[in-house]
């Protein structure tokens, strides 16, 4: 019977990130890359930039109505993002 090495690789990768002290940056990048899957294609298609700075998530939008909609539903956006990435940010700003 063949041993499943996926668990071993995952553990080794996580240990590598912690040892090199880049686990935070990796998770930040993962958040940015996950924006479309977390928020959906309609929002992602109107987003020109997503980045973290001093524990604030900045989301630059190309649509004023979309920006207003997200500002009005900011707590829902924070709730969706916090499920996986709540430890990375304290606030969300829509630009």
3D structure, described in words:
58% of the residues lie in helices and 18% in strands. The chain has 95 residues and is an alpha+beta fold. The protein has a single domain (6-94), classed as 2-Layer Sandwich (GMP Synthetase, Chain A, domain 3), CATH 3.30.300. The protein has a three-stranded mixed beta sheet with strand order 1-2-3. The mean pLDDT is 88.
List keywords for this structure.
95 residues, GMP Synthetase, Chain A, domain 3
How many domains, as an integer?
1
H/E element sequence = HHHHEEHHE
CATH class category name = Alpha Beta
Which class of secondary structure composition applies to the elements? alpha+beta
Proportion in helices: 55-70%
Q: Extract low-pLDDT stretches.
A: none
What Rg is obtained from the alpha carbons, in whole angstroms? Answer: 16 Å
Q: Major beta sheet, specifics?
A: 3 strands, mixed
Supply the CATH architecture: 2-Layer Sandwich
Strand order of the largest sheet: 1-2-3
- Kindly state the number of beta strands: 3
Mean pLDDT: 88
């Amino acid at each position: 019977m063949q041993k499943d090495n996926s668990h071993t690789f995952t553990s080794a990768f996580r240990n590598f990130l912690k040892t090199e002290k880049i686990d935070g940056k990796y998770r930040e990048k993962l958040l940015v890359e996950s924006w479309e899957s977390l928020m959906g294609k309609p929002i992602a298609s109107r987003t020109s930039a997503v980045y973290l700075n001093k524990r604030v998530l900045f989301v630059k939008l190309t649509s004023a109505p979309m920006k207003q909609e997200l500002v009005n539903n900011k707590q829902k956006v924070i709730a969706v993002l916090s499920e996986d990435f709540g430890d990375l940010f304290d606030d969300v700003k829509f630009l």
